[in-house]
Write a structure and sequence with these properties.
mainly beta, five-stranded antiparallel β-sheet
Length: 64
């Protein structure tokens, strides 16, 4: 499991893939990950998967 740190709280999910995408906030190309959300995530009521930049991911149990 990983944590997606988001402004509104945390989302939980499993990384199921990744793709290379241009990151306008960094002005370079970076990995963008596809996550299958846990049913307990706050947005799981309306979406089952989401994407996140590598810098937004944190392994479960890891401290920032």
């Amino acid at each position: 499991m990983v944590i997606i740190v988001s402004p509104g709280g945390s989302e939980w999910g499993i990384v199921i893939g990744r793709f290379y995408s241009y990151a306008p906030h960094r002005c370079c190309w970076m990995w963008r990950y596809i996550l299958w959300l846990n049913q307990a995530s706050s947005s799981a009521a309306w979406v089952v998967a989401t994407t996140a930049w590598e810098e937004d991911l944190q392994a479960k149990g890891e401290k920032r």
